[in-house]
Amino acid sequence: MVGRRYRSRFVTGLVVAGCAVVGLCVGSFLNVVIHRVPRKESVVSPRSRCPGCGTELRAVDNIPVLSWLLLRGRCRTCKAPISIRYPLVEVLCAVLFVAMALRFPDEWSLPAFLVLAAACLAGSAIDLEHMLLPNRLVFPSLYLAAALLAVAAAIDGDWDRLLRAGIGAVAASGGLFVLALLWPRGNAMGGGDIKLALLLGLCLGWIGLGHVALGLFLGFLLGSVAGVSLVVARAKRLQEHFAFGPFLAAGTLVAVWWGRPILDWYGMG
Ligand SMILES: [Zn+2]
């Protein structure tokens, strides 16, 4: 018994450590996605260049976080400053991946939730900067997560969960669509949010349909608090558009990690 428990802890440790390293590398790719996808550029080629002098980045200068620290946040060639956003996205992605690994250490659905975390991070960054959630980010993430959940359902022989995930996707997206119809103007919500909700509802629905409702509710709650704060701080006017995607994403991630205790607390488990 002790041996088995020790071994399972060892495996969990490996999964968590692996997710940290993979998270740093995926974060590095997300930096490319965040910069290029809204500009409709390819995420595969050309290789990354310094925006200051155009020098192509060598592999050694492209190591997540480490290169930025070693170069002290400057280009090796022209010494132009490199935004702290790059190492920040890499670290955040690693943190999210580790949190997912700790949440689903021995579940086959873990890869799908890593896709969810990466899409939430990249989508939030793009939405904050450009006020949009590109189809080229949302749909590939949705298809990849759905495929990975289908694989997990097949391994576990649990097709009910996949069905529930599908219902969650339709319910979340449909719910936002109806809300957008009811309040068509002066509304933070856009078409991108309705599409993103397919992915969020899919992953939350896999956990449970209560989690879908909770995730959306938390998203609206966080968005309203932030929206009111911005108006009070006079940073935005009441009718001004602001990015809603990051709040939906945050609400979803909170529901993934703490949904069970929150729902139990309210007797809705
Ligand atoms: Zn340079």
How would the global form be characterised? globular
Largest sheet: none
Distance between the termini: 31 Å
Query: Would you list the SSEs in sequence order as H and E?
Result: HHHHHHHHH
Give the number of helices. Answer: 9
Task: Write up this protein.
This protein is mainly alpha-helical and 269 residues long. 70% of the residues lie in helices and 0% in strands. It has nine helices and no strands. The protein has helices at residues 2-36, 66-70, 85-103, 110-130, 135-156, 159-182, 191-207, 209-232, 245-265. The longest helix is centred in the first third of the chain and has 35 residues, at 2-36. The chain is globular and about 60 Å long. The site of zinc ion has 8 residues, from loops.
Entry summary:
The protein is built from nine helices and no strands.
Features:
269 residues; mainly alpha; 9 helices; 0% strand; binds zinc ion
Lay out the secondary structure.
Blueprint: H1 2-36, H2 66-70, H3 85-103, H4 110-130, H5 135-156, H6 159-182, H7 191-207, H8 209-232, H9 245-265
Zinc ion binds at residues 50, 52-53, 55, 75, 77-78, 80.
